[in-house]
Structure to design on (640 residues):
């Protein structure tokens, strides 16, 4: 039974109408009728009026720090909540679960209509432009780091924290599902911002003392161990990365592998058993995902959970996490020596649907089409998301062959974060034992590349859309050198990577030519992308304005103020790299893959401080437009 609390230790007004709890144990007995107001003009999402006011203030404060917040879901009426739950349940039905099982799984991610806080107007699902999907990757973004530090000052808390999954019964999703649930505490109950600033400064000073230095060693040919004891965290993380050159012949098979591997492994062969196992491990998290890294493909198996010393009954949790990660990576559930045919059939349909739905996400579709034109038949042009026409032809035998080829040829990076030296040694030995049974022949990874310069190619594809999409791709012409990274970061912040950039302030805000306009750089391919949403009639003007801002930065004045504003914004974002295990892992693994000396975050911050105006111009002068891809209505296709 829960303890009874009075209000002697807390400043709490139990009569406050804003104090409301809705969940599966305390369902709604009547439909709320909150007074609503638009909280995010860009998405049109509404919250309860006072919550909307606070959200606007929070979003403005984030923007001042160079962070863009996107309110993707706010208040939902009963029909919207029912539709959301039914859609989530349908995903599990399509995976072969029973009606009862599908409903139970769905309720752990998306509450039923009568148990959803979205009805109150106080719950907000928040994402950002660098993570537009509701996945745990949001936890690795600058927006999540900013929210973690500052959201409470505006009355927002992370509603379903990762470490409280067992108690809440909800699966951790840092931007949604596990919602940024807006609860309006009294002003006196909000955290003191001076304390928060002191806490962040203390964490940074510890980093500068060298307490977060990752150690990397080769433990077998093509196999490295990267270890960071990460003592300030109460959680640990074990990740196994497989990196190998992408091949056109196996691209679709490798796109399907993570879906199959995440379903279960030999000792835990189905999703029901896997969920129960993770729950017994105090809400541990298992992910299997894949991503393109230039001309290379990367598959990662990762397990995150609380450290051994926090186990209530002294369980050896790290050993369990290692067994789970290694089991998933090296002992998938096979039937007759190949992947389970039933699981293959289910996941093929999921992959097929995802590829078919690409065209419905016009921003993503436009960028992928531009990439296909830009990279052509080069190794970086392989569609690592898979080829729709090949999905039906995938068999358990084909998938098993692709999986075994990965084990044999991939470069392997074992990252152990938050574990002691003895625990890390045990994980290392367990991995080496697995590898001793495999005839390994690691292939060298593809080096960083760059597409050659060419006359700009302009392509137009016609759709009856409300908003046109424009993607422009530029090349350095030569592979990026690792020592250019600091200058590239500052160049992107100045040009289009922040709310103080030229594209944002001039093309979007001053000229009103774009709904959004931003630049990003891909170091593995030496390429810059500028993505924008525009009025159909303004597409040609927008392209000219985007090119003009680039030319102005190359040869025109750059004020000391804007240079330092962008530098400070980058440094502020980089200050949070070591605040999450995911941030540490992503930083160091990307450093390893880029080649050259591995920089610590402190090294990178020092390098950024040293970048000059001329360094920025040198990078920008190297970039030339190769492809301009436009999605627009047919009557506007004169852009071509």
């Amino acid at each position: 039974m829960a303890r009874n609390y009075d209000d002697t230790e807390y400043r709490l007004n139990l009569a406050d109408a804003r104090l409301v709890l809705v969940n599966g144990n305390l369902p709604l007995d009547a439909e709320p009728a909150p007074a609503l107001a638009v909280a995010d003009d860009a998405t049109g999402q509404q919250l309860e009026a006072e919550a909307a006011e606070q959200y606007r203030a929070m979003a403005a404060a984030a923007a001042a720090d160079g962070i863009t917040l996107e309110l993707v879901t706010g208040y939902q009426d009963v029909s919207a909540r029912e539709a959301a739950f039914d859609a989530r349940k349908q995903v599990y039905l399509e995976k072969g679960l029973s009606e009862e099982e599908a409903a139970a799984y769905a309720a752990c991610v998306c509450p039923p209509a009568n148990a959803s806080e979205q009805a109150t107007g106080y719950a907000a699902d928040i994402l950002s432009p660098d993570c537009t999907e509701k996945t745990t990757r949001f936890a690795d973004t600058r927006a999540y780091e900013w929210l973690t530090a500052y959201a409470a000052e505006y009355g927002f808390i992370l509603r379903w924290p990762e470490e409280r999954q067992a108690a809440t019964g909800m699966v951790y999703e840092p931007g949604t599902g596990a919602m940024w649930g807006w609860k309006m505490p009294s002003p006196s109950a909000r955290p003191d911002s001076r304390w928060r600033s002191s806490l962040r400064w203390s964490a940074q000073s510890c980093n500068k003392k060298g307490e977060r230095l990752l150690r990397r060693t080769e433990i077998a040919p093509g196999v490295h161990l990267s270890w960071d004891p990460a003592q300030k965290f109460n959680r640990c993380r074990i990740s196994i990365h497989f990196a190998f050159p992408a091949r056109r012949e196996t691209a679709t098979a490798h796109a399907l592998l993570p879906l199959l591997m995440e379903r279960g492994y030999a000792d835990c062969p189905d999703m029901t058993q896997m969920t129960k196992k993770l729950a017994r491990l105090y809400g541990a998290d298992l992910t299997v995902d894949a991503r393109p890294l230039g001309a290379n493909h990367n598959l990662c198996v990762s397990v995150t959970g609380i450290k051994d010393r926090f186990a209530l009954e002294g369980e050896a949790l790290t050993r369990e996490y290692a067994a789970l990660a290694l089991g998933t990576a090296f002992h998938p559930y096979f039937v007759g020596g190949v992947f389970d045919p039933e699981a293959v059939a289910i996941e093929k349909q999921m992959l097929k649907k995802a590829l078919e739905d690409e065209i419905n996400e016009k921003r993503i579709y436009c960028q992928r089409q531009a990439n296909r034109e830009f990279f052509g038949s080069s190794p970086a042009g392989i569609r690592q998301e898979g080829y729709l026409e090949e999905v039906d032809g995938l068999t358990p035998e084909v998938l098993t062959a692709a999986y075994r080829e990965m084990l044999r040829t991939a470069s392997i990076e074992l990252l152990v974060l938050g574990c002691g030296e003895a625990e890390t040694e045990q994980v290392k030995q367990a991995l080496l034992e697995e590898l001793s049974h495999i005839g390994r022949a690691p292939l060298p990874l593809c080096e960083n590349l760059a597409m050659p310069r060419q006359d700009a190619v302009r392509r137009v594809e016609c759709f009856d859309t409300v908003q046109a999409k424009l993607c422009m791709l530029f090349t350095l012409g030569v592979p990026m050198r690792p020592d250019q990274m600091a200058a590239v970061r500052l160049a992107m912040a100045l040009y289009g990577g922040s709310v103080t950039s030229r594209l944002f302030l001039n093309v979007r805000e001053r000229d009103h030519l774009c709904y959004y306009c931003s630049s990003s750089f891909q170091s593995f391919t030496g390429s810059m992308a500028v993505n924008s949403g525009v009025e159909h009639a303004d597409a040609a003007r927008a392209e000219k304005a985007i090119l003009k801002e680039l030319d102005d930065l190359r040869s025109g004045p750059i004020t000391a103020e804007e240079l330092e504003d962008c530098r400070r914004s980058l440094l502020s974002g980089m200050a949070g790299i070591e605040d999450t295990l995911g941030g540490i892992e992503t930083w160091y693994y990307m450093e390893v893959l880029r080649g050259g000396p591995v920089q610590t975050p402190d090294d990178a911050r020092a390098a950024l401080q040293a970048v000059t105006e001329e360094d920025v111009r040198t990078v920008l002068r190297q970039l030339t437009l190769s492809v301009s891809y436009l999605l627009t209505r047919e009557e506007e296709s004169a852009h071509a």
User: Anything to note?
Assistant: The chain is about 40% helix and 20% strand. The first helix runs from residue 49 to 64. The CA atoms of residues 147 and 611 lie 29 Å apart.
